[in-house]
Amino acid sequence: MTISYIRPIVPDTTPEKASDALTRAIAQPLPLIAVPASRPPRLTNVLYRMATVDQRGRVADRHTTAALDWNAGTRLNIREHDGLLVITADPHGVFQPTKQGYLRLPADARRAAAVSCGDGVLLLTHLDRQTVTVFPPIALDDLLLRVLPSGEDA
Fold first, then answer.
1. Sequence spans of domains, the chain
2. Which top-rank group of organisms is this from (predicted)?
């Protein structure tokens, strides 16, 4: 019985050919996205965070309350405005952050803004105004549909 071997296929890696390929790769710059020159400067007094809402309405983020220096004794007002929840410090407010520093969205506010257990929300914290605006998923969907070019899905 004779054994036949399959001849291996090995690309040519002589120094001249390898350096030519490297030179071609370096010579071709990567394409860049064109950024409009008329873009406004980024806001430095705004903090953006994504967080999940649990079954008790707690928002899993403590950076927001820490940035605003809100603690468990801070009285808060929570109101719905155009499908968003706006949270402000208010001496007459009936809500407070938890002892651990989490915001808690009451059931009525969650229903008004269509926030369910497990939903991810965008927290926009305006440091100068001492407010937190909660963007629920439905508001983010609406915003993306207005911003994305037509024909694209998020």
1. 57-147
2. Bacteria
